[in-house]
Amino acid sequence: MKDLKHEKKKIGVIGVGAVGATTAFVLTIKNIADEIVLLDHNEARARGEALDISHCVPFVSPIVVRAGKYEDLADADIVVITASVPMLNFTSRLDLLRKNISIIREISDGLMKVEFNGIILNVSNPVDILSYFLYKFTGLPAKKIIGTGTVLDSARFRYLIGRNCGIDPRSVHAYILGEHGDSEVPVWSQANIAGMNLQDACCACERKCKKQVFDHIFEEAKVSAYHIIKGKGSTNYAIAMCAMKICKAILSDENRVLPVSTLLDGYLGINDMYMSLPTVVNRQGVKKNIMLPLNEKEKAAFIKSAEILKEEASRHKVD
């Protein structure tokens, strides 16, 4: 007979600034885990956020939310990394790399000292390169190192297409792939509304939107983070939802397809770099990438995105 005993699920969150604290809050109210451990250089901040979030527990299913140290993460199923210098003073995500790489190295060392063997979900930017460095620093299998990638970019893309077309964004299926950053690639060729190719849907629509409308949609999706950061200092709500969805896909063994950042192995001739493709995510982490067919323009843009990331990564030692 199958053992019906509940398997305890534990998530660590390293870095409890705006993104980390919001992620812990969303994980709590969505009942994704049984225990959430918060870790931050500012231990008082971690304790305060944990206590505040704990007061939500009477309104949700029982869960333990507490501050902790690396030793408390040794048996975690997932560690979510959100630690980062603030982006407010930088012009792009890639500009954060020089500052954040030392943070990632320190976190990797801390996790390896306690022999952590779970799945790492990296949110910190530049998410693709830092996820790649986590893979190199920790020595964990690539399937256990996942970046949030373009999950958020794709959500913004779907939202904006839906708003323009007067369609619920849940019925819009479209991806932004490649870098989570300025070289990201909109995959217009595969975008669809309820299964109808977007181009065909536009032909059937009375509005007859011109190309400039769709150029604006992509541009708004690409730069929206900068507008948010300029207005309030950071993004936190939507990226926390993305992190929660990925954690749920892992812990619930969903085999869900998400455009996360993973190690590429031969797609369009690209190797040894983390980038976003539609990826099947389950209890093991990455199950497989889905090799989405791109048109020639999209292929060229994806390869260019890879070149930008590889060039930037090559400037920093990972050994």
Q: In the CATH hierarchy, what is the superfamily of the largest domain?
A: Lactate dehydrogenase/glycoside hydrolase, family 4, C-terminal
User: Structural class of the secondary structure composition?
Assistant: alpha/beta
User: What is the string of SSEs from the N terminus onward?
Assistant: EHEHEEHEHEHEEEEEHHHEEEEEH
Q: What is the CATH C-level name of the largest domain?
A: Alpha Beta
Proportion in helices? 40-55%
Strand content range: 15-25%
How many angstroms does the end-to-end distance come to?
48 Å
Summarize, please.
With 319 residues, this protein is an alpha/beta fold.
Give an account of the 3D structure.
The protein has 319 residues and is an alpha/beta fold. The chain folds into two domains: 10-147, NAD(P)-binding Rossmann-like Domain (Rossmann fold, 3-Layer(aba) Sandwich), CATH 3.40.50; 151-313, Lactate dehydrogenase/glycoside hydrolase, family 4, C-terminal (L-2-Hydroxyisocaproate Dehydrogenase, Chain A, domain 2), CATH 3.90.110.10. It is built from nine helices and 16 strands. The mean pLDDT is 92. The longest helix is centred in the C-terminal third of the chain and has 22 residues, at 211-232. The strands form five sheets. Strands 3-2-1-4-5-6 form a six-stranded parallel beta sheet, sandwiched between helices. A three-stranded antiparallel beta sheet has the order 7-10-11. Strands 12-15-16 form a three-stranded antiparallel beta sheet.
Which key terms come to mind for this protein?
single chain, 319 residues, alpha/beta, Rossmann fold, L-2-Hydroxyisocaproate Dehydrogenase, Chain A, domain 2, 6-stranded parallel sheet, 3-stranded antiparallel sheet, 9 helices, 40% helix, 19% strand, globular
